[in-house]
C-alpha cells in the first residue's frame, strides 16, 4: 500500500486533475440557478465527457463520444477496455448496475450476478454448520455467480445505442491484441495478491516463471480475450451465455477443487432487469440511485434525508495551507454528524435490504421523510457506537440482521454525451481478481460472497441469505443528481470500494451540494465514515486534533487505508460563460476524466 500511496501522490502532482484546493470562490449562477462552476483543478468540456478508472479506458470512451456514440455506447466500450487494463476490479465475468438519463426519465438497469439454481442456503457453511473463512469461500468456483454485465449492457444498448454493437468492441479487441503496459497500481495489486498465481491462465498472463508479477511497463497481450470479444462482437451477448464460452465458464467453475454449482442452464436463463430508480429530494436537488438488490440507492436517500434535519453546510472543510500544498481539514462536527447518520443507515441496510424479487423491501417506508426525521433525532453530541435498526411505518420484519463481514472492491464509470444524456455505472467482479479463476482471457467474479454466509440467526432467516437464482445485496451506488425545479441533470457520480462505497459517494455529494466544492476537490477530500462499527478515517489524512475530538465524543476511531476510486461529472458554467461539464477522478487510483 505504501507504493500505491507514493504513486498516487506523484499522479496528484503531475496531472491537471490532481490539484488540491479549498472551497471554490468562483461560483457563478447559471440560467437555471445552478451554483456550480468550473475550477482550474477539474477537467472541463463543452460537449461531452467520460470519466473512468484508467486513462486508456477513458480515452476509448471519449473516442466513442467523438464518433457520435451515446453515453451507453461509451460506457460499453469503457467496460470492455477495463476488462483488459483493470482486470482486478471488473470485467465481462462480473456484474454491474447502470443508471441512465435520456433527457426525459431516469432508468435503472440491473446486471447483478445470480446464484446458481443448484445453490442452497448452506453454500458457505462448513460440514459442521459454521461459516467458512472469507478466502476459503472466495477462491475457486464456489463463489462464482452467473455474470450479468454483458446482458445488461446489451439491454441498455438496444434502447440507447447509436453505434453498432460490434463497433464498440473494436478498441478493446485491438487493445487485447496489441497489449498495454502494466501500470504501477496494477503491479502493486498483483504484488499484494497471493491467490491469483495459482491459476495457470492468469499466472501465464501476469506473472514471471518465478512467481513475481511482471514489471511495471511490461506489455501484456491477451489474445484469448481478443478472440472472446471478437466472438461476442459478432454474435451478441448470446455468444457468452451459450455455446463454447458458456461451457468453458462452467468447466472452470466446476473443475476447481473448491468447486461451484454454476451450470450452462444458469447462463442461458440469465436476464438483465430494469428496476424503478430510488429517487429522493434534498434541499433543491433530486438524487436518483440504484434500488435493490443494491442497498446504495436506499442508503444514500436515507443519509440525505437525515442530513436534511441537520445543516451540514454550516461546517465546511477549512483550507489549511502548508509549505507544499493547500489541503482541506474537515471539521469534527461534520465527521461526527455524517458518521452517526451512516450508522443508522447501515443498521437498516443490514436488516431490511436484499434482492426484492425474494424479499419484500419497503423502499418508500425506508426513505420516508417522517421516518428519517425520527431517526435523525437519535443523533446527539456523543457517538451512539452501534445503531439499532429502525421500524418504518407498516414494516414488520421477520428477519435477523446480517452479520456478514464488510468488503471492498469494484470500478466506476461516469459519462455524459453530446445530447446531455448520462450514465452512472458501477461494475464489479467483487474482490480483487474475483474468484481467481480465468477462462478465455477474463476473470470470473466471486459475487456470491456478497450473500450472508449464515442463512439464519437466533432462529430467524437473514434476508440476504443464499437462495437459488437470487442476486446478492450490493453497496454499489451509481447516482444521478438533478435540479428539482428545472429537472436538469446536474451530476453523475459513483465509486468502487465495497460497502465503503456508500460513504465515499455520500461525502463527495456533500462536498459538491453543501460545501460548494468543485468535483475534483470534493473527490480529493479525505475519506471517512462508519458502517455501523468503528468510525473509519483515511490513514494519514486527519489531524491529531480531529482524532482526539472524535474520541472525546465517544467514537471508536480506526485510521485505515480507504481506497476509493471515485469518478464524477458535474454540469458547470465554464470560464467563457457557456454551460459545459467539469469532471474529476480519484487520485488514489489511476482514473481520469476526458472530454471535448
Topology:
Layout: H1 2-14, E1 43-45, E2 49-52, H2 55-66, H3 71-85, E3 95-101, E4 106-111, H4 134-138, H5 149-160, H6 165-178, E5 180-181, H7 184-191, H8 200-206, E6 219-220, H9 223-235, H10 238-241, H11 244-255, H12 264-269, E7 273-275, E8 278-282, E9 285-289, H13 296-307, E10 318-321, E11 326-329, H14 332-352, H15 363-366, H16 369-376, E12 411-416, E13 422-428, E14 438-439, E15 442-443, E16 456-457, E17 460-461, E18 479-483, E19 489-494, H17 501-513, H18 519-524, E20 528-530, E21 535-538, H19 544-552, E22 557-560, E23 567-573, E24 579-585, E25 592-595
Parallel strand pairs: 21-22
Antiparallel strand pairs: 1-24, 2-12, 2-25, 3-4, 3-13, 4-7, 5-6, 8-9, 9-18, 10-11, 12-13, 14-15, 16-17, 18-19, 19-23, 20-21, 23-24
Helix pairs in contact: 2-3, 3-5, 3-6, 6-9, 13-14, 13-16, 13-17
Amino acid at each position: 500500500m505504501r507504493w500505491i500511496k507514493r504513486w498516487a501522490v506523484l499522479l496528484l502532482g503531475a496531472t491537471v486533475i490532481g490539484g488540491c484546493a479549498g472551497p471554490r470562490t468562483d461560483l457563478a449562477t447559471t440560467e437555471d440557478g445552478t451554483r456550480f462552476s468550473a475550477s482550474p483543478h477539474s477537467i472541463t468540456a463543452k460537449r461531452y465527457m467520460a470519466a473512468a478508472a484508467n486513462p486508456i479506458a477513458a480515452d476509448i470512451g471519449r473516442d466513442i463520444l467523438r464518433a457520435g456514440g451515446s453515453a451507453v455506447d461509451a460506457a460499453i466500450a469503457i467496460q470492455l477496455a477495463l476488462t483488459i487494463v483493470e482486470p482486478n476490479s471488473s470485467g465481462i465475468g462480473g456484474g454491474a448496475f447502470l443508471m441512465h438519463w435520456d433527457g426525459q426519465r431516469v432508468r435503472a438497469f440491473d446486471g447483478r450476478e445470480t446464484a446458481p439454481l443448484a445453490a442452497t442456503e448452506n453454500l458457505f457453511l462448513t460440514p459442521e454448520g459454521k461459516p467458512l473463512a472469507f478466502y476459503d469461500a472466495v477462491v475457486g468456483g464456489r463463489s462464482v455467480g452467473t455474470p450479468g454485465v454483458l446482458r445488461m449492457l446489451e439491454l441498455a444498448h438496444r434502447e440507447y445505442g447509436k453505434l453498432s454493437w460490434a463497433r464498440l468492441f473494436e478498441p478493446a479487441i485491438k487493445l487485447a491484441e496489441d497489449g498495454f503496459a502494466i501500470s504501477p497500481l496494477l503491479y502493486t495489486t498483483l504484488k499484494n495478491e497471493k491467490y491469483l498465481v495459482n491459476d495457470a491462465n492468469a499466472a501465464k498472463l501476469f506473472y514471471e516463471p518465478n512467481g513475481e508479477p511482471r514489471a511495471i511497463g511490461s506489455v501484456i497481450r491477451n489474445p484469448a480475450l481478443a478472440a472472446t470479444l471478437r466472438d461476442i462482437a459478432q454474435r451478441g451477448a448470446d455468444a457468452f451465455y451459450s455455446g463454447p464460452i458458456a461451457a468453458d465458464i462452467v468447466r472452470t467453475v466446476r473443475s476447481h477443487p473448491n468447486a461451484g454449482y454454476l451450470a450452462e442452464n444458469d447462463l442461458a436463463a440469465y436476464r438483465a432487469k430494469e428496476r424503478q430508480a430510488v429517487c429522493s429530494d434534498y434541499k433543491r436537488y433530486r438524487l436518483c440511485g440504484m434500488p435493490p438488490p443494491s442497498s446504495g440507492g436506499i442508503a444514500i436517500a436515507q443519509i440525505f434525508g437525515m442530513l436534511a434535519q441537520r445543516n451540514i453546510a454550516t461546517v465546511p472543510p477549512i483550507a489549511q495551507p502548508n509549505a507544499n500544498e493547500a489541503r482541506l481539514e474537515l471539521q469534527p462536527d461534520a465527521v461526527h454528524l455524517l458518521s452517526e447518520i451512516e450508522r443508522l443507515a447501515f443498521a437498516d441496510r443490514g436488516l431490511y435490504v436484499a434482492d426484492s424479487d425474494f424479499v419484500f423491501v419497503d423502499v418508500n417506508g425506508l426513505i420516508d421523510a417522517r421516518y428519517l426525521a425520527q431517526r435523525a433525532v437519535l443523533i446527539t453530541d456523543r457517538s451512539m457506537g452501534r445503531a439499532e435498526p429502525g421500524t418504518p411505518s407498516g414494516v414488520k420484519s421477520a428477519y435477523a440482521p446480517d452479520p456478514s463481514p464488510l468488503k471492498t472492491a469494484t470500478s466506476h464509470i461516469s459519462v455524459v454525451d453530446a445530447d446531455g444524456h448520462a450514465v452512472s455505472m458501477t461494475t464489479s467482479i467483487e474482490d480483487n481478481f474475483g474468484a481467481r479463476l480465468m477462462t478465455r482471457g477474463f476473470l470470473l467474479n466471486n459475487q456470491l460472497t456478497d450473500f450472508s454466509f449464515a442463512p439464519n440467526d437466533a432462529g430467524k432467516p437473514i434476508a440476504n441469505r443464499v437462495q437459488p437464482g437470487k442476486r446478492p445485496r450490493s453497496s454499489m451506488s451509481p447516482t444521478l443528481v438533478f435540479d428539482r425545479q428545472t429537472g436538469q441533470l446536474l451530476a453523475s457520480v459513483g465509486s468502487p470500494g465495497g460497502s465503503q462505497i456508500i460513504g465515499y459517494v455520500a461525502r463527495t455529494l456533500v462536498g459538491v451540494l453543501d460545501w460548494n466544492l468543485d468535483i475534483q476537490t470534493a473527490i480529493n477530500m479525505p475519506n471517512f465514515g462508519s458502517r455501523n462499527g468503528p468510525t473509519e478515517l483515511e490513514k494519514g489524512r486527519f489531524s491529531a486534533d480531529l482524532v482526539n475530538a472524535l474520541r472525546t465524543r465517544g467514537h471508536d476511531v480506526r485510521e485505515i487505508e480507504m481506497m476509493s476510486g471515485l469518478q464524477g461529472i458535474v454540469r458547470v458554467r465554464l470560464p467563457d460563460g457557456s454551460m459545459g461539464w467539469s469532471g474529476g477522478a480519484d487520485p488514489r487510483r489511476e482514473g481520469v476524466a476526458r472530454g471535448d
